[in-house]
Amino acid sequence: MGRVGVVTLLLATLSIGACSSEQSFRVADGSSIRFSELRGDWVVLNYWAEWCAPCRKEIPELNELQDQAVEQGIKFRVFGVNYDGLQGADLDAVMERMVIDFPVLLDDPRQRFGIARAEVLPMTVIIDPNGKVKTILSGPQTAQSLLASVES
Questions:
Q1: pLDDT per position in the chain (152 positions), as tens?
Q2: Which residues, listed in sequence order, are joined to residue 25 by a DSSP beta bridge?
Q3: CA distance 148 to 114
Q4: By the 8 A CB rule, do 60 and 99 touch?
Q5: Measuring CA to CA, which residue among 22, 37, 16, 46 is closest to residue 146?
Q6: How far apart are CA 95 and CA 104, in angstroms?
Q7: Which of 16, 35, 62, 136 has the fewest CB atoms within 10 Å of its CB?
Q8: pTM as predicted
Q9: Regarding the domain with residue range 23-151, which homologous superfamily does it belong to in the CATH classification?
């Protein structure tokens, strides 16, 4: 194999290795995701806490968001991130009390997207279908305001 062939093979191997080394994020239900698997979909990351009254008011809106997006033909994925970093039985109990129907990530993807820690809760991050942060919204949102944010 010539020098060009060796270099090409090396680059191909490095590319494959880079793809497989993408971080997986654990989900409270025991599954995991890679954000590259969500390409083509809008992603909503919502940072919430049980002690946050606006968060408790916003949760039903997030539960409704995916249904409305489907009706309007928009591919949407909603994920929550508990601000306090709860896990296990503690997180499960809070999710049940708050009636959270969307997946909650155990691993915070802030670093992956270059997002600063929330200073105000709730904080909602909208990620476009290409995997780029479109906007960061502070304070409570509605399903309609989030859909409008995507359509703008």
A1: 555 444 444 444 444 444 457 899 999 999 999 999 999 999 999 999 999 999 999 999 999 997 787 788 888 899 999 999 999 999 999 999 999 999 999 999 999 999 999 999 999 999 999 999 999 999 999 999 998 888 77
A2: 33
A3: 24
A4: yes
A5: 46
A6: 9
A7: 16
A8: 0.83
A9: Glutaredoxin (3.40.30.10)
* Integer-rounded Cα radius of gyration of the chain: 18
Q: H-type helices in 21-119, by residue range?
A: 53-71, 88-98, 110-113
Longest dimension (CA), the chain: 66
What is the SS3 string spanning 108-132? Answer: CCHHHHCCCCCCCCCEEEEECCCCC
